[in-house]
Design brief:
The protein is an all-alpha fold. The chain has a domain of 69 residues. The protein has three helices and no strands. The radius of gyration is 16 Å and the shape is elongated. The N and C termini lie far apart (42 Å). The model has no long low-confidence stretch (mean pLDDT 69). Keywords: Membrane, Transmembrane, Transmembrane helix.
């Protein structure tokens, strides 16, 4: 665990939680994608909220990871470094998918 860093120990706990948040957020978005949003206003709102959360999370996590990595470059153990790389790869794939097919993120 990273001790006495500028940001503190909270990001380490956050990174451990991200491995559960990424798949759950993706499943939530994907499930709401297949709901018929044209006929039901409530599900349309759920879909739009999930798409917004997914996009914000996909863009915010890489920025946070890069800043955290720069600040604590020499203090990270191998497991945390691999976890950070996996989050960057997952977010990068999401960004590429959003860029290539933006219709997936609109109703």
């Amino acid at each position: 665990m990273v001790k006495n860093s500028i940001i503190g120990d909270m990001p380490v706990t956050l990174f451990k939680a991200l491995k559960f948040v990424h798949p759950l957020l993706f499943i939530y978005w994907l499930g709401s994608k297949f709901i018929n949003v044209q006929e039901n206003v409530f599900f349309g709102i759920v879909y739009e909220m999930s798409a917004l959360l997914f996009v914000l999370f996909t863009v915010a996590v890489p920025l946070f990871v890069i800043v955290y990595w720069i600040i604590n470059k020499g203090k990270l153990n191998k497991t945390l470094t691999v976890q950070l790389l996996l989050h960057l790869v997952f977010s990068g794939i999401n960004i590429v998918v959003m860029t290539l097919d933006p219709a997936n993120f609109t109703s």
